[in-house]
Design brief:
single chain, 219 residues, alpha/beta, 6-stranded mixed β-sheet, 7 helices, 10 strands
Length: 219
């Protein structure tokens, strides 16, 4: 689904922040992305989401060369990817329900066909009692769970999650990881960026370890 061939990234005239990355993300695969702060994890996620282009090398996403994807093609390709940002990016003028439903609304999906799914997903992440709340009154952990629900509602082919359990207690973190595992079993490829080694040790999954821009892969 996603293939990197000798990819490098630099910002401006600085040194490369990602160097010589060559790997594949297969359909239905599950992997953790880890490494120290500043190793390049966020830049790598941006490459996956096509919000950043490589300085060199080739990236193929869903059969498209990322360097030649047009502005018209980009929205439909991004809709195949669910992403959970560290800063959540919820819209403050929308309720929790409206934020989670937004990816379906922008596609023109009728509310009658997705309302039950949104409510069920909010119940799974423990937010069914906050359905009409606005983001500004939610805690950091609640906003994080809302961002996860929004990323999952469209049943993406690839899920990218940047520290999705960082603000959660261990019980909720485990619950979210089980949700990601179930999503993976249904065919979605999952990439989770995390510093939580204890969490990773509980799952038999491939690890991408970034250090100073270079990657080691442990299957």
């Amino acid at each position: 689904m996603i293939r990197f061939d000798n990819v490098g990234v630099r910002y401006g005239m600085g040194e490369e922040v990602l160097k010589d990355l060559t790997f594949e993300i297969d359909k239905g695969s599950f992997q953790f992305l880890t490494g120290p702060s500043g190793a390049g994890k966020t830049s790598l996620l941006r490459l996956f989401f096509m919000s950043l282009k490589p300085t060199r090398g080739l990236i193929n996403i869903f059969g498209h060369d990322s360097s030649t994807i047009t502005k018209n093609e980009l929205p439909s390709l991004r809709r195949r990817i669910g992403i959970v940002f560290q800063d959540f990016r919820l819209l403050n003028h929308l309720t929790l329900y409206e934020n989670v439903a937004l990816p379906l609304r922008v596609r023109g999906v009728e509310e009658l066909s997705y309302r039950r799914d949104v409510i069920d997903l909010l119940e799974w992440v423990g937010l069914d009692k906050r359905i009409d709340a606005f983001p500004e009154v939610l805690s950091g952990g609640e906003q994080q769970r809302a961002a996860v629900a929004r990323a999952l509602i469209g049943q993406p082919e690839v899920l990218l999650a940047d520290e999705p359990t960082g603000n959660l207690d261990p019980k909720l973190a485990q619950r979210l990881l089980r949700l990601f595992v179930e999503l993976n079993r249904s065919g979605t490829s999952v990439v989770i960026a995390t510093h939580d080694l204890g969490l990773m040790d509980q799952y038999d999954a491939r690890r991408f370890v970034l250090n100073e821009g270079r990657m080691q892969i442990y299957d």
